[in-house]
C-alpha cells in the first residue's frame, strides 16, 4: 500500500515513522510519502491560498497547486483504484467500515486542506479521475486535515495484514464485526486487587463460557449507555 499526503505541513507526517506504522514501512508493507504542496507553486511567496469568491472571512486554497500535484503524483489517466481522501468537517463520518474498505486499497492520497478549505473544483476534478472520499473525523473543527489524516491512517493501516503482530486482537475490538459492532467490554490484568478494587470474580474463574457471557453483557450494557445508536435490535 502506498500512502501520499499533500499538505503545507509535511513534517506532521514524520510521526508515521514511529512504532507499528514505522515497522510496516520498514517491512515494506506500507510506503509513505509526504509532499509539501508549495512544491507546486511558482511565485516568490509560494502562495497556496486566495480570497474567497463571493466574499467572506478567511482564505481558500487555490486549485492550481493541487492540480499540478495530482499531475505529478497520479498523472491524468482516470484510475478508480486510486483513493483520494479529503479530511473535512463537512465530510461523511469516518467509520470502522471505511477503514476496513480503505485497508484493501493499493494507493491512497490524503489531501490535507487548511484555511477555509480547498477550491471545490479540485474535488470535482479528482472525482472525475479517482475514487474520492470526503470524510469527517468528528463534529468539531480542526485547523486543517493533517491530524485527521493521521488518525484515519492509523485506523486503516492497522487493518492491513502483517501490520499488527497479533491479528487476533482486531476481532475483539470496539466496532469490530465479531463484537456485533458494540463497544468493547472493560479489560483487567494483574494484580487481582488494586487499591481496594478487585478484578471481577468471573474473570478469575477460568470458566470460558461464563467469561464470554459476562463480556457480551458488559459490551451491550456499555453500548446501551454510551452509544444506543449502535444497537440495531432495540
Ligand atoms: N474536523 C475537521 N476539521 C478540519 C479538517 C478536517 C476535519 N475532519 O474531521 O476530518
Short description:
By secondary structure, the chain is α/β, with parallel strands linked by helices.
- At the third CATH level, what is the topology name of the largest domain? Alpha/beta knot
The domain tally reads 2
Query: Which radius of gyration do the C-alpha atoms yield?
Result: 22 Å
Per DSSP, the total helix count is 8
Q: What is the CATH-assigned architecture of the largest domain?
A: 3-Layer(aba) Sandwich
Write down the secondary-structure element order: EHEEEHEHEHEHHEEHH
What is the approximate shape? elongated
CATH superfamily of the largest domain: SPOUT methyltransferase, trefoil knot domain
Adjacency order of strands in the biggest sheet? 2-1-6-5-7
Q: What portion of the residues fall into strands of 2 or more residues?
A: 15-25%
- Quaternary structure of the protein: single chain
Largest sheet: 5 strands, parallel
Low-confidence stretches: none
Q: What small molecules does this complex bind?
A: 3-nitropyridin-2-amine
Q: What helical percentage do the residues reach?
A: 25-40%
How many runs of DSSP E, i.e. beta strands?
9
Q: Give the class-level CATH name of the largest domain.
A: Alpha Beta
Mean pLDDT: 94
Helix/strand-derived class? alpha/beta
> End-to-end span in angstroms?
39 Å
EC number: 2.1.1.228
Subunit structure: Homodimer.
Subcellular location: Cytoplasm
Family: Belongs to the RNA methyltransferase TrmD family.
Amino acid at each position: 500500500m502506498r500512502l501520499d499526503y499533500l499538505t503545507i505541513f509535511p513534517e506532521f507526517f514524520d510521526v508515521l515513522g514511529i512504532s507499528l506504522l514505522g515497522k510496516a514501512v520498514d517491512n515494506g508493507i506500507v510506503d509513505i510519502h509526504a509532499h509539501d504542496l508549495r512544491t507546486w507553486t511558482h511565485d516568490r511567496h509560494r502562495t497556496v491560498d486566495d480570497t474567497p469568491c463571493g466574499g467572506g472571512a478567511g482564505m481558500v486554497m487555490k486549485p492550481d497547486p493541487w492540480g499540478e500535484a495530482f499531475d505529478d503524483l497520479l498523472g491524468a489517466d482516470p484510475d478508480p483504484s486510486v483513493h483520494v481522501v479529503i479530511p473535512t468537517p463537512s465530510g461523511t463520518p469516518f467509520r470502522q467500515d471505511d477503514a476496513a474498505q480503505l485497508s484493501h486499497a493499493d494507493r491512497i492520497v490524503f489531501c490535507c486542506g487548511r484555511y477555509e478549505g480547498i477550491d471545490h473544483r479540485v474535488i470535482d476534478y479528482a472525482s472525475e479521475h479517482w475514487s474520492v472520499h470526503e470524510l469527517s473525523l468528528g463534529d468539531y473543527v480542526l485547523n486543517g486535515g493533517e491530524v485527521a489524516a493521521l488518525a484515519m491512517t492509523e485506523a486503516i493501516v492497522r487493518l492491513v495484514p502483517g501490520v499488527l503482530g497479533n491479528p487476533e486482537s482486531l476481532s475483539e475490538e470496539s466496532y469490530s464485526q465479531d463484537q456485533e459492532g458494540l463497544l468493547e467490554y472493560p479489560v483487567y490484568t494483574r494484580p487481582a486487587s488494586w487499591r481496594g478494587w478487585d478484578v471481577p470474580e468471573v474473570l478469575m474463574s477460568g470458566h470460558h463460557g461464563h467469561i464470554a457471557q459476562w463480556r457480551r453483557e458488559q459490551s451491550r450494557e456499555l453500548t446501551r449507555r454510551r452509544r444506543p445508536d449502535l444497537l440495531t435490535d432495540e
